[in-house]
UniProtKB/TrEMBL annotation:
<dbReference type="InterPro" id="IPR025110">
    <property type="entry name" value="AMP-bd_C"/>
</dbReference>
<dbReference type="InterPro" id="IPR042099">
    <property type="entry name" value="ANL_N_sf"/>
</dbReference>
<protein>
    <recommendedName>
        <fullName>long-chain-fatty-acid--CoA ligase</fullName>
        <ecNumber>6.2.1.3</ecNumber>
    </recommendedName>
</protein>
<dbReference type="GO" id="GO:0004467">
    <property type="term" value="F:long-chain fatty acid-CoA ligase activity"/>
</dbReference>
<feature type="domain" description="AMP-dependent synthetase/ligase">
    <location>
        <begin position="18"/>
        <end position="116"/>
    </location>
</feature>
<feature type="domain" description="AMP-binding enzyme C-terminal">
    <location>
        <begin position="168"/>
        <end position="202"/>
    </location>
</feature>
<keyword id="KW-0436">Ligase</keyword>
<keyword id="KW-0276">Fatty acid metabolism</keyword>
<dbReference type="Pfam" id="PF13193">
    <property type="entry name" value="AMP-binding_C"/>
</dbReference>
<feature type="signal peptide">
    <location>
        <begin position="1"/>
        <end position="21"/>
    </location>
</feature>
<keyword id="KW-0732">Signal</keyword>
<dbReference type="GO" id="GO:0005783">
    <property type="term" value="C:endoplasmic reticulum"/>
</dbReference>
<keyword id="KW-0443">Lipid metabolism</keyword>
<dbReference type="Pfam" id="PF00501">
    <property type="entry name" value="AMP-binding"/>
</dbReference>
<dbReference type="InterPro" id="IPR000873">
    <property type="entry name" value="AMP-dep_synth/lig_dom"/>
</dbReference>
<dbReference type="GO" id="GO:0016020">
    <property type="term" value="C:membrane"/>
</dbReference>
Length: 295
């Protein structure tokens, strides 16, 4: 059996490794979460050390990193020697430090001194003791590694009082090959969530031809009700697989054809979502989505 697995690995993986030059020894992933399934596959297929890191621009990028020889996916490793990490209570989301859960805070020489000429924003990010509050919610695993489980910043309540962390939901939906970008919206006056979705132009045409028998330009496909329904169905499937609660699943989507970018004012220079600008930009589409939902 082991020999068969080795032969299968050789047959399937060697061409892939050769296509990368055959000399890859190390790879690093960061900036956004990677699916544990994808990470496990890449480690096996490429045959090199593949590390996953976690951090922010404000702490000079990385503050944790997986270890050499680590083959368990689903965490971002242990703290780097240059900094200390602690978790603090996020009581409104029921994450408590006593349970090994809470907002990830970083302290060390790698943490920035502040935002240029913006003391108010700096005070929001760094507390009086010098801890950078990342806005990410983490959980300590038994082996001392950190798992990112939620997002504190940008949380809001729905009309029934449920707390929503939109970035967590967006990260789940981004696992869909059909989705390039997604903006999840909700507020305290609404009972459910909606989303603006930008499909992946490189994936969409082949996918719709295979699954729906539809052809056309990117704009034409995005305007088809069948395509919208197929994207929505895939998002719902991934939401269930990702453990989203029913109130965390969006109830309707608007399919947009232009990627969010720095140029159109929907992303920051570090490629983070400008949520207020996105909300204003898509206000009419969001209102139309809500008007069409029957609860």
């Amino acid at each position: 059996m082991m020999m068969r697995l080795l032969m299968l690995s050789f047959v399937l993986c060697c061409p892939l490794q050769a296509s990368l030059g055959g000399r890859v020894r190390l790879m690093l992933t960061g900036a956004a979460p990677i699916s544990p399934t994808v990470l496990t596959f890449l480690r096996a297929a490429i045959g090199c050390q593949l590390y996953e890191g976690y951090g922010q621009t404000e702490c000079t990028a990385g503050c944790t990193l997986t270890m050499p020889g680590e083959y368990n996916a689903g965490h971002v490793g242990a703290p780097l020697p240059c900094n200390s990490l602690k978790l603090v209570d996020v009581s409104e989301m029921n994450y408590l430090a006593v349970n090994g859960e809470g907002e990830v805070c970083v302290k060390g020489p790698n943490v920035f001194q502040g935002y240029l000429k913006d003391p108010e924003k700096t005070a929001e990010a760094i507390d009086a003791d010098g801890w950078l509050h990342t806005g990410d919610v983490g959980k300590w695993l038994p082996n001392g590694t950190l798992k990112i489980v939620d997002r504190k910043k940008h949380i809001f309540k729905l009309a029934q009082g449920e707390y929503i962390a939109p970035e967590k939901i967006e990260n789940v939906y981004m696992r869909s090959d059909a989705v390039a970008q997604v903006f999840v919206h909700g507020d305290s006056l609404q009972a459910c969530l909606v989303a603006v979705v930008v499909p992946d132009p490189d994936f969409l045409s082949g996918w719709t031809k295979r699954t729906l028998g539809l052809e056309g330009s990117f704009q034409e496909l995005c305007g088809r009700a069948e395509v919208k329904a197929a994207i929505f169905e895939d998002m719902m499937r991934l939401g269930k697989e990702g453990g989203l609660k029913s109130f965390e699943q969006v109830k309707s989507i608007y399919v947009h054809t232009e990627l969010f970018s720095i140029e159109n004012g929907l992303l920051t220079p570090t490629l983070k979502a400008k949520r207020n600008e996105q909300r204003q930009y898509f206000r009419s589409q969001i209102d139309n989505l809500y008007s069409g939902i029957k609860m």
